[in-house]
Write a structure and sequence with these properties.
4 strands, single chain, 334 residues
Length: 334
């Protein structure tokens, strides 16, 4: 009797544990029942166990189910494991699915692997598909850069200021690794400057602004970029400053300063030479004075040694007086 009671007790405990386990399982399944039913009714079934496993893998089941339903309704059958893998790789599952739907409607070849690669590369795949369907317009130069026009100078020295609008569409095949809009703007700006600079007269550019568009477009500026250039249109072109005249004026001013410096150099050299000549004359005059000072000494020495008499000395004095008189008369005559 006691043994029977013990068996009944353990049986009740077992049934209670099983019931508790069943209740927990029922609550868990009930939590995902709505998602399971929604997917089943939408024709994109996802198993209840699979939904639970998504939660255990830290994947949002609602996100996966809703995107699978959207893809299925658009005619795309994307397995949940692919979407889970992209979610775990920190990709934007919703953007990729919406991009695939848009690409399918627009008859654009965009497989899942390429779309996932573009999304993981940091590009907005949905915006890329939209731009491929509806081309976008890029302003050149970009107003956010702080410049309003592209300035270039024709061969006649006249500056022209141009604004361009570039119509592009995304090239899905070159989106990964392709250059961005900044490269397009830079290349178009370079082409405009080159075309204006090669013009012999600025009037030619003003008369035929489409010449710029045709020349720049023919250079294949979209090579290596993520875009395909459809058209380049000159939105505005104005006449700027006469750069040639300004450069000539600046050159003339520089030449004037250079010639003035050369003239000043020659004047300073002449002044220095004159000062050297004056110093040389003063030196020669000092030498003469020194020589003249030796004459009285020589006369005195001649008197002492008896080589010079009084009459000889008087003749010398008369000769000096006569020379001084002649010199005075010559100066008065002048």
């Amino acid at each position: 009797m006691t043994t029977m009671l013990a068996i009944d007790t353990w049986a009740l405990i077992g049934l209670g544990v099983l019931g508790l386990f069943g209740l927990i399982l029922f609550i868990i399944l009930l939590q995902y029942f709505q998602l399971w039913l929604q997917a089943w009714l939408s024709g994109a079934p996802v198993g209840l166990v699979e939904l639970v496993m998504m939660r255990l893998r830290k994947v949002e089941p609602s996100l996966i189910v809703l995107n699978r339903i959207a893809a299925k309704k658009a005619g795309l059958d994307i397995p949940t494991n692919l979407m889970e893998a992209h979610f775990l790789a920190r990709g934007n599952v919703s953007n990729v699915v919406r991009a695939l739907i848009a690409a399918g409607k627009a008859k654009i070849d965009l497989p899942w692997d390429r779309a996932v690669a573009i999304d993981l590369a940091g590009r907005d795949i949905l915006d890329a598909v939209n731009t491929s369907v509806n081309p976008k317009v890029i302003d050149c130069p970009n107003p956010t850069s702080g410049r309003q026009t592209i300035d270039a100078v024709a061969k006649d020295g006249i500056q022209l200021r141009a604004k361009a609008r570039v119509t592009v569409r995304t090239n899905i095949a070159r989106l990964v690794g392709g250059a961005t809009e900044e490269t397009i703007v830079a290349r178009v700006g370079e082409g405009i400057i080159s075309t204006i600079g090669s013009a012999a007269d600025h009037k030619e550019v003003l008369e035929n602004p489409d010449r710029i568009s045709k020349t720049v477009l023919a250079k294949g500026l979209d090579a290596g970029t993520a875009f395909e250039i459809l058209s380049i249109d000159i939105a505005d072109i104005d006449v700027g400053s006469n750069i040639g005249a300004q450069l000539q004026q600046a050159q003339a001013e520089a030449d004037t300063k250079r010639f003035q410096a050369q003239a000043e150099q020659r004047r300073a050299l002449a002044v220095a030479e004159e000062a050297e000549h004056q110093a040389s004359a003063q030196k020669n005059r000092a030498i003469v004075v020194l020589a003249e000072a030796e004459v009285p000494k020589a006369i005195a020495d001649a008197f002492r040694n008896g080589r010079l008499g009084v009459m000889d000395y008087e003749r010398i004095r008369n000769m000096q007086a006569d020379t001084s008189m002649r010199t005075t008369i010559a100066k008065d005559g002048v």
